[in-house]
Amino acid sequence: xxxxxxxxxxxxxxxxxxxxxxxxxxxxxxxxxxxxxxxxxxxxxxxxxxxxxxxxxxxxxxxxxxxxxxxxxxxxxxxxxxxxxxxxxxxxxxxxxxxxxxxxxxxxxxxxxxxxxxxxxxxxxxxxxxxxxxxxxxxxxxxxxxxxxxxxxxxxxxxxxxxxxxxxxxxxxxxxxxxxxxxxxxxxxxxxxxxxxxxxxxxxxxxxxxxxxxxxxxxxxxxxxxxxxxxxxxxxxxxxxxxxxxxxxxxxxxxxxxxxxxxxxxxxxxxxxxxxxxxxxxxxxxxxxxxxxxxxxxxxxxxxxxxxxxxxxxxxxxxxxxxxxxxxxxxxxxxxxxxxxxxxxxxxxxxxxxxxxxxxxxxxxxxxxxxxxxxxxxxxxxxxxxxxxxxxxxxxxxxxxxxxxxxxxxxxxxxxxxxxxxxxxxxxxxxxxxxxxxxxxxxxxxxxxxxxxxxxxxxxxxxxxxxxxxxxxxxxxxx
Length: 479
Ligand code: AMP
Ligand code: ZN
Fold this sequence. Notes:
The protein is of the alpha/beta class. It has 16 helices and 18 strands. A hairpin with a 2-residue loop joins strand 8 and strand 9.
């Protein structure tokens, strides 16, 4: 539309302050978001975090920034306990499914992107896999070794956190307090040969009695990389030693991101990113954390099977500020679904009566500015939604055209497909109608390969089909 003049404010975990966002390079943002560990389906808790990161990216783009968004896929080295003990989640997943680690990595990575697409989460500019960067990680660990930050014990090469000034600053605790807290809260066994409880593994040796599916030679012995090293190495590789934003869920503050900062500081003398943003958890009932390893999980597919539009879940996420805990209930999802349907109906009815001037009245500008102010205020989406409801329900001074245009602008950030019902009235070319019918026949015959092939043919024609509980929906992709 135009280049807005407003400033963006973000809450930075590193400084514990709401700060004005100033990019390193004018007009550009380099951002790293920790990606999924692909040993199982991502659950809706994980997706709450990815939706928050997607909203952040969209807000930055709405403000005219060019965003380079990098996300890793963890396909090795993430142990069942974040405290650096237990088994590799990937190997556990492979045993469970009697498949190779590589097969489950491919399968769950694909499912992850399928679900992301259903939630209108933009694909990162660069997606990088840990197993494609083993040589880079070995190189980086060597650098840390040269600088004297590492030591070797029975099960691997460790990072000595005491060697670093200010280790743990992301948590707001000093070194001693962090170690004491860890000791007090230690529910898991830790290797007693570690010099400090906070020390973490950079390279883990393969067990002597068992052959792992994934292992590589290294200067220290056959093994595999620790989980934290992958993000440091890939972040720096694709975004440079120093970039703008690093994100994840709050569980990453005390261990994963703290250790990412430690590794980068040891190598370069400063944290890899200026702004550290963390999303609060999605929880059930009594603040129970929803963990993938707990077995029973709710996925995007689960909510679709229950008859919900996946974007109703996105709407639900937008009703809470990303730094507040969000309690999930089926009732709250139902309310979100109702609200979203009502909003889409408003948009459809506006589109049917699009009278009014396309020029921008001062009132139009006022709404635009208020929206921008809300989203630029540390992503205040509840406020942006409230403004949207005032606009559709109460506003008398704007023409339908202006309201419609504003809603389409807002939807660049919401990404709720607000015009979905409008677009359904677009006309499909007859050959596309025929293909959709054929695909339906294939689906009825459970011939998924043929159905997928037709979906691809339609996509090549710019038509996206989605299977929803209400039947097949289609939309024409804007080009
Ligand atoms: P993981 O695949 O376990 O590495 O998690 C992927 C992302 O989801 C990370 O950014 C986590 O911080 C985040 N996450 C995990 N559980 C939840 C939850 N219940 N609510 C919100 N975010 C979560
Ligand atoms: Zn990470």
